Amino acid sequence: MKPDKYLKNYIAGALVPPESGEYLDNVNPATGKVYSFIPDSDERDVQKAVEAAAKAFPDWSSCGVRKRFRILLRLADIIEQNLEDFALAESEDAGKPVSMAASVDIPRAHENLRFFATAILHFAAESHHMEGEAVNYTLRQPLGVVGCISPWNLPLYLFTWKIAPALATGNCVVGKPSELTPMTAYLLSKACMEAGLPPGVLNIVHGLGPKAGQAIIEHPQVKAISFTGGTSTGRKIAATAAPVFKKLSLELGGKNPNIIFADCDFDQMMVDTLRSSFSNNGQICLCGSRIYVERPLYERFRDEFVKRTQFLKVGDPASPMSDLGALVSKSHMEKVQGYLQLAEVEGGKILCGGTPVEVGGECEGGYFLRPAIIEGLPIECRTNQEEIFGPVVTIQPFDTEEEAIALANGVPYGLASTVWTTNLPRAQRVAERIQAGIVWINCWMLRDLRTPFGGVKHSGVGREGGWEALRFFTEAKNVCMKY
Ligand code: NAD
Fold first, then answer.
1. Whose CA is nearest to atom 16 of ligand 1?
2. pTM value?
3. Sign of the dihedral through C-alpha 23, 51, 176, 193
4. Which single residue of 57, 143, 300, 468 has CA 20 to 30 Å from 356?
């Protein structure tokens, strides 16, 4: 299943060009060169997609869970059978190492489909008995046409995380992947055709957020929006969708703390802290970007962390030797570099990294940056308050549990956090008090797809994962029957 040079929208079961006839450049971040073109879709394409979804809805929503289960499993199998093609496409589009796309992104995409395909077989609603008088039962009905909008950092992983529960519950979807990383969603449309997904059940419209994305949000027939992306975009989406009472699930930005106590398992903590800081160049919403270390361990931690970070190989995403590939775009790289300059202005000391890497060869024009560690910054500075979403972390010592919790909670975000200690009562005390949707104790990014996933404060509204996602994509209707 190979990428094409000119991508097409997937509407009503067919691959179609955009109504405008216009295309946007798609850049390979590892080379800085345009390598394909994506539809510059607008409200006309979205209108066609919504019409197709609305037409498909009566059959899809009433065909029964077993049929939906079988088709979604087939789709998962096709992705798995084409893992190499999908992984290469994801790497070329996003700049991440092929090894990461092949071991994390694409396997998780087919797992998302399998997880929700099977979950729907076990999904049940409640009943409430009023003794001697009546019985209430709850119907969980699909919403109709729903919008799923995803970001560039884990493209197919997050796109399927949304569309799988939406489709499993019987909705029809108009989806939009990020304009920076459209290729695996395009391959997904080919896979849907091969899997026999009925036309119109899933429609994929490519293009810019404020144009194609906004048209999905605004469309009166789109009943719910599942969005993952930046906090400021989430705010705009809420401002459009809330006044017309659309159901909203918003998974937004983060500024996640790692709290490391001196009694932790040092070796395991180091391995996972390196991963939580720089996996995918720090471009994972769950990456820890503020690291707080109990003072007796601070210097040992700092020296070892700097040493291991300097050892990370930044290079050609196609090479199995590369730990880190390119950042997703030129403007994102400039944004990250801007924060590094700001950190110095704010009095921070860059202990390592932060400089561009000349990879050379094919990758001469790519957006490569050495991962950076900064120390000496207070919690209230912008570097510690704002999401950078790149290979940049700050480190700081703390003296008491109380202080660590105050630092962890001292930002507007609240997505994920990690706590490292062998003192389990303390770990649980801290977990209770951290303002975040996710707390990892002595691990990072260990994911069970049944668990609720999402953030508090400016990191989002609502929860994905497990039953939460199936509940989001259904409307509860209580039926009360007197006897
Ligand atoms: P973004 O907000 O710029 O874009 C996300 C998606 O929204 C893209 O498809 C974009 O085209 C679309 N979009 C933009 N403006 C829109 C509008 N007005 N209407 C409708 N759609 C619009 O985010 P990004 O830069 O692609 O992704 C990075 C951000 O995503 C980071 O802030 C990161 O923390 C966040 N993120 C959060 C999670 C989570 O689970 N909480 C997961 C991954 C990424």
1. 209
2. 0.97
3. negative
4. 300
